Every structure is written in structure tokens, then in C-alpha cells.
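Note on ligand handling. Small-molecule inputs were canonicalized before submission; formal charges were left as drawn, and no protonation-state enumeration was performed. Where a ligand contained multiple stereocentres, the stereochemistry in the source SMILES was retained. For guanosine-5'-diphosphate, this procedure yielded the string shown in the input block below.
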Amino acid sequence: MGRTSRVIVVGGKGTGKTSILERAIYANSLLEKPYVPTLEDTYVGIVETERGTREKLRFYDTAGLDARKRSLPPHYHTQADGYIIVYSVTDNISFQLLTDIKKDIDKNKEKKDVPIIVLGNKSDVVAQNRAVDLNTAERWAAMERLRVWEVNIRDRNLLLEPIMNLASRLNPQPSKTSFPQLTMGRKSKD
Ligand SMILES: Nc1nc2c(ncn2[C@@H]2O[C@H](COP(=O)(O)OP(=O)(O)O)[C@@H](O)[C@H]2O)c(=O)[nH]1
Ligand SMILES: [Mg+2]
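Structure output:
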């Protein structure tokens, strides 16, 4: 296990950022609980990666954004090793915020290649309440070279897969294959 990676969780108010963390990290469900807006909280979790290693992640749960407050305080970006961007599939405004959120991340990040996952939360109620279709979300994500997962907090496994994907990209293993390819691929003439 390497050092603890810092993951910023960002998105519109009420999209389920806190619920996702409570569910994914502690297996708690906030579904029936009264809504409490978050000021700021952190969660520490050990996440298994696709390589079978374990990584320690500290998640920064942020106060939600809205049409008037469209960006995070800058100190979050200087701390970030990765991001979870959350919108709600039931709330088109929360989806529209993604463009600004992504721009803000790009602008504030000197370090290239910060892994980002996009979660379209509340997929349990799409039958009655869908406001953002998956195609639209995927088209936007493809343009930004991101991947989007529709999730909900009833199904914890749905949450763990994208978080595992993020953890796997946070601490990439030094590649064992690229070095031999580099040295053996082309021979110099002399
Ligand atoms: N149906 C449904 N409701 C959810 C889901 N996730 C969160 N919620 C509800 O959405 C509201 C806002 O959740 P919260 O986690 O506080 O949102 P935050 O402001 O982004 O942290 C709460 O009433 C949650 O119970 C979900 O996956 N499905
Ligand atoms: Mg919250």
C-alpha cells in the first residue's frame, strides 16, 4: 500500500455525494434519513484495485454546488489526486453543472492525468424520474475522455466497481512491459 491518495467528491447539491460515501465506505444507507447538507467531511477507505492490491484513499466530501456556486474553493484542487464527479439522473441541472466542474478541474490542475470518474446517481428511480438519459451523459463523457457509471446507493456493488476503477488508476504500478519494449523495440544503427 502506497501513500494515501486524496479524492475530491464534487457535484450538485443533493445528488447523493454523502450517501454514496456512507454506503460505499461504511455500508450505511442514508435513504430514509433526513437530508443534511454537507459542509465538509472526509472518509478514509481501503479500496481493492483491479490488480488485487489495496490502496488507502481519503475522500473529501464537499459542500454541493449549484447554479450560483459553480466551483470548489481552489485549495481542493491543489490537494487532489483524483475526482469523483456526481450528478443525479433525476436532475438535469446537476448534469449541466458537469461542464463547469470539469473545466474547473482542468484549469486548476497542473498535474496531468488526474483520474476522474463520473457517477450518475439515483439510477434506482429512473423508471419514474429520469431527467438525464444515459446516451447524453455518455456522449459528454466520451468528449471529455471520461467514463460514466449509473449507480444508486441501494446497490453497493454498483458503487464499488467505479471506485475500484479509480483506485486502480490512482497508483499505477510501474509498468513492467513498457521498459523492455522501449529498449528492444528499435535497435540503433551503430
Ligand atoms: N432514490 C435515491 N435517493 C438517493 C440516492 N442517493 C442519495 N439519495 C437521496 O438524495 C438526498 C441527498 O443525498 P445526499 O447524500 O445528502 O446528497 P449530497 O448533497 O450530494 O451529499 C437524500 O435524501 C438521499 O437519501 C439514490 O441512489 N437513490
Ligand atoms: Mg453531502
